[in-house]
Amino acid sequence: MGPHPAVAAIRLAVRRVLHDILNDHQTSGAHSGRQAPGERERTGRTAERPPSPLVLVACSGGADSMALASALAFEAPRLGIRAGGVTVDHGLQPGSGLRADEVALRLRGLGLGPVDRVAVTVGREGGPEAAARDARYAALDAAAERHGATAVLLGHTRDDQAETVLLGLARGSGIRSLSGMAAVSGAGGRYRRPFLHLDRQTARKACMVQSLPVWDDPHNADPAYTRSRLRHEGLPALEKALGKGVVEALARTAQLSRDDADALDAWAGQAEAAVRDAAGLLECAKLYALPPAVRRRILRRAAIEAGAPAGSLFARHIEEVDRLITGWRGQGAINLPGRVVAQRQGGRLVIRQG
Fold first, then answer.
1. Which residues make up the binding site for ATP (predicted)?
2. What is the pTM of this model?
3. Binding site annotation covers 69?
4. 5-35+47-242: CATH architecture
5. Most buried of the four, 7, 114, 175, 260, by CB within 10 Å?
6. Is residue 61 marked as binding?
């Protein structure tokens, strides 16, 4: 008799991602370890095979990440992959340090190693949710670098994806926000999200049938947090009004939006060289001829290259710069985040540090 369907589903999702990681690792190792013609004859040595990759799981102790950790512990040894874990103590609740210790102990009990328990200081920039997220990813990046990990697995589910799409829609920040979370992200594809096609209930069921203890973060039910209100009030209201299937539809929207956004980004990358003059300045007439979605991507990229922080550069900023192209009435320079200034000069758009 095979495993429970929920357990089988999470293991299959993790197995697929581990196969991708292993293939990427072997391909990069083959390139880096390739010998020049005659090298083997001269040295008498064959190229060394790269060591087995290390994959870490980011685990808070909640149902999603505990299910992910258990599946990684089961699947990794069967593929010759080393598996470890990281739990981050944000220090935002009483007893958080003790809970982090417990999670680390559970990860070791699953047979994972190395296991890191990392305490972080959460700042205030961007609000509490964004600040905690920034601190968490910085800690995960540091752990991956410290241990030489090939990848870090994250337990975001289809439900998380639906919430992310709705948050992007509420901000009115364009198709890239509607594309939600990528299955692969981060420098060199470090972060992998195996559960984006699985619902939250599947992960919780998998923990229950395996008798895995889970911790329900009270912040996830705190109405002070936007995502919590969306999870417990917004999405249920949508399902009541529109019927079941809203979460699946939003997740599907994310994938379709990501495909469109990737295509537009590629188009903008190819078009950018054609709209610059010999000195590298953007020519307004050529920018005007481009579709707005492509033109605005070029403007955003130019602003970031000039020093504007990507996280502080909003759609309204790019719209103001775009009016220097499409609604030129002799207006003055546009101030952008990072002390970057955009202005029109002699038919050219100049974006630089002020």
1. 60-65
2. 0.83
3. no
4. 3-Layer(aba) Sandwich (3.40)
5. 7
6. yes
